Amino acid sequence: MVPMAKVVSLGAINYDINLFVERFPKxxxxxxxxxxxxxxxxxxxxxxxxxxxxMAPGEVAFIGGLGDDQIAEMQKKVLEGEGVDISxxxxxxxxxxxxxxxxxxxxxxxxxxxxxxxNHEIKPEDVEEEKRLALIRQANVLAVVDPPLPVVLKVVEIxxxxxxxxIWDPGIHCVKGYESxxxxxxxxxxxxxxxxxxxxxxxxxEPEEVKKRLSPINxxxxxxxxxxxEGSQLIDPEEEQSIIIRGIPLQKYGFKVVNTVGCxxxxxxxxxxxxxxxxxLIEALxxxxxxxxxxxxxxxxxxxxxxxxxxxxxxxxxx
Length: 319
What we know:
By secondary structure, the chain is α/β, with parallel strands linked by helices. It is built from 11 helices and 15 strands. The model has no long low-confidence stretch (mean pLDDT 95).
């Protein structure tokens, strides 16, 4: 079957085991677990699901690594149920699928122990294998999150060659600085970061200085700064001033913030889906803001809206 995906998301897929306790144990102490939840996660897979919920089945594909275990089979079924094309998943033999063990106390504080597993085992040659190469070649948008850096480089090179819009959320890699990442940045169209990551990457916070430092590497690179409830900021080398896309004041419209974990993934996924559907970048950012705000009203990490939920929410907050 010829791939039909318009958005391809690349990154981690994890199985999250959440342990709810009254308080964290001291060293050597045993503390009872009050409740446990097991949910699919991983930023790359979360982005894929967020995009897929606004698109037709098969229009979003996911590329990432899973082990040869029961977790992998469950993860595939969940993604397929969301309408995500899983033909690009890489099975890593003899390695466990990624898992995150998250301990949460009664105050909502947490600590996380992560087994990266198969997520860190994928190689550049894996994405050059024909079925994955076909997905990347025909994609309108590549939503790159957190695969290993050599894989990021290979994917953005291919994406540039075949004319895809490439969005990269570099996350923890920002601390390496822009000079260390320039071989990747020269192929990226949109860099997606929060305020701390912008400063970590560029050593600057003012939009003009951010542009000044990144333009010699890629004169067309646009930076989107995620600002949580405040919305987002577009730093575009073609615009004299940065553009603020205001956030959604949820309380004003009678909504309550329940859980902000996963809002960034919803933002990224809907941004990618909207660009693939032909919306302008400003329109796509407005839609991404809406999706991030909607997710904040949901407890689940993959709380991004379906197409119907998105339209209804849009009417309520714009209406």
